[in-house]
Amino acid sequence: MSSGLQVNAITSGYKASVVIRGLSFQVAAGEAVALVGKNGMGKTTLLKTLMGYLPKKTGSVHFNNSDITRLSPHHVARLGVAYAAQEQALFTDLSIRDNLRLGLEKDALFDDAFARVEPVFPVFRDRLKQYAGTLSGGEQKMLLVARALMMRPSIILLDEITEGLQPSVIERIAAALTHERQQHGTAMLLIEQNVPFALKVADRYLVLKQGEIQDEGDTRHLSAAETIFNHLRV
After folding, report:
1. In sequence order, what are the residues at sequence separation of 6 or more whose Cβ sits closer than 8 angstroms to the Cβ of residue 192?
2. CA geometry: angle 64, 151, 103, nearest 5 deg
């Protein structure tokens, strides 16, 4: 079995409700894959299932040759899987530093980890004592990404990270993710509705409809944007 993330015939959902139906795909080591689709198609459910927040009814998940199908979220994270969730996942009454620290096993690792993040998110350089709740919406999204990168992950799962952001902030996040891949070979699975962002950051795209992958392709193909938009219109 090759390294990277391998999802095999996963079925998942909430109690008796099935949302993800026999889903299979892979993200190779160092690769970025964008999973696109309209709201309600199961994108967030998939990420929660991969992280272990939701149980797998059928199928298996392997990461870097380890079976993570039944592991709890904190065990999955320890294997090098970082998760930037769509919903509010910051502790707004804690400082920026304390929020970043949550991605590390011990405080002694902070300086080295922040040295990796600081060049791509210099906005936090002199503001580590500031409360996260006082940041703008865009800065909070950047903090979510920075916290995930502090873990030095092998792969990062990003759930609608660009939702509601200004174009300038989206560009900054795209640059940060591109830098992370180029410098550290970090793989990425991006859940997105922002097609230009997805095509800019990812190597491949997958189209999710009703819990199943309906199409896939190379983001560099000239027809990629048109193909994706056609799926999103239906």
Report:
1. 34, 35, 36, 158, 160, 161, 162, 198
2. 130
Q: Kindly report, residue by residue over 165-181, the tens digit of the pLDDT.
A: 999 999 999 999 999 99
pTM above the 0.70 mark? yes
Inter-residue contact 51 to 83 (CB < 8 Å): yes
Using DSSP, state whether 224 is helix, strand or coil: helix
Phi, psi dihedrals of residue 116, rounded to the nearest 5°: -80, -30
CA angle 148-50-120, nearest 5°? 20
What tens digit of pLDDT does each residue of 21-62 get?
999 999 999 999 999 988 888 899 999 999 999 999 999 999
The b/e string for 68-80 (b: 16+ C-beta within 10 A; e otherwise) is bbebeeeebbeeb
End-to-end CA distance of the chain: 36
- Residue extents of the structural domains in the chain: 30-55+70-233
- In this structure, CATH architecture of domain 30-55+70-233: 3-Layer(aba) Sandwich (3.40)
Radius of gyration of the chain (CA): 17
